[in-house]
Amino acid sequence: MKVVIVEDEIAASENLIYLLESIDDGIEVLQVLDSVAAAVSYFSTPTDAELIFMDIHLADGISFEIFDQVQLTIPVIFTTAYDQYAIQAFKVNSIDYLLKPISEEELEEGIDKYRNMQVKQPPLDDHIQGMLELIQAKNKSFKNTYLIQKRDELIPLKVQDIAFFYIETGIVKAVTFSNQSHIVNKKLEDVENEIDPTIFHRVNRQFIVNREAIVNIKFYFNGKLIINTNPPFQERIVASKAKANEVKNWMNL
Prior knowledge:
This protein is of the alpha/beta class.
C-alpha cells in the first residue's frame, strides 16, 4: 500500500511512519508534506498514493483548504489533536480519524477499514467544506442576544431561549421555548450567519431550528423530512430531499 502523510510536526510524522512499518512492512510512504501549499503542489500532479493520512492543523492553514484547490479521490484518514466535538463531524465524511497521540491499535483499525472498502471514496469537496465551516465556527463568537422592540422599549431576547426562527411575508420572527413570538429586524440569511450552526440549522428557506426544539423527525414522501418541534408550529416544517441528509448529519453531531 502506498501512502502520503500530510503533517507539519516532524515527531508526529516520524511516529506515524514507525507505526505503519510496525503494522505492515509492505506499506510505502511516498511523501511527507508539511503544509497546505506543499500538499496542493503535490496533489496537482498524478500520484500513486492509495491512502492519505492528514493532520487538521498545518503551519499555513487548515488541511481542508487543500480540497478547495485540488480535487482528490484518494481516501483520507484524518489525524488530529482536535476535541471530540469536531471529531464527530469528521466521522461522517472520512474513512476514519485518529486522535493524537496515535495508538498502534487504532491505526491498524483505520487501515483495516480502508482495506475493507476495496474502492476509493468519491470526491470530498462538499463534505470538506462543511467540516471546514464547523472548524472555523469553533473559533468564532456568535450572537447571544437580540434586542426586540416592544412598543416604546427594547427588550433583550437570549438566543438560547429561541426554539426557531421563521420568515412570513418578508418578516423574520423568533419563537421562544415558551411559545412567544417576536419580530426580529434582520434578514433570515443574516440571522443564520450570526448564530451558532452547531445549535441552529436552516432546515429550509423559511425555518432555522434549534436542535433542542426538535421532538422528532419523520420521513415524508420523495425523501423529504417533517420536523416536529416543541413548541409546535401551526404548519408542517418540511426539509427537502436535498436538505434531508444535511439535517440528519447535523443532528448526529
